[in-house]
Amino acid sequence: MTSILSTPSLDLRRFYEKEWDEHQRVATTTFETLFPAFTEWVETAAFALQHGKKLIFFGNGGSAADSQHLAAELTVRFKSNRKALPALSLTTDTSALTAIGNDLGFDYIFSRQIEALGQEGDVAIGISTSGKSPNVLQAFKEARNKKLVTVGLTGRGGDFPGKADIILAVPCATVARIQEMHITLGQMFVGALEYRLGLN
User: What pTM was estimated for this model as a whole?
Assistant: First the structure.
């Protein structure tokens, strides 16, 4: 019986190397350019948590998964057992998401929840690879109305400038690479918060 792997339909080694090379280039450029914004993000979040505020994450698709992932690492643990940190993702309540989407429109699935749950001084963290997601931008608008600090994780281009207070824009237009950098930055953020708050 002939294995399907014995007659590959494309040069997987070339593909493999090309993807890895691009990942490394984007990772290096991200590392070299985003430290100031990363520092501001960490310090802003630490200040909020020290003053009894919370972190609110939101995004669509893969960014929704990142939102849930990072909120869970804050409320549960990351590097070590420590006290829970107040964080939530606006992508997990299916009743709220479907009701808002049905009654008000998909553009409001995050902003409506921020209207209900956000408090002055909280940090609203929106994730969008394109920087053009209408529901993320609408959430930033509502967050600013309620005097939350807004943080945007995005890629090259997009409409975040002027809409978010702190922007971490991965210097790339490839969605997969942007997503890889977002979860890397996000986990670095959680670890840095633990360090900054003396919890590790």
Answer: 0.93
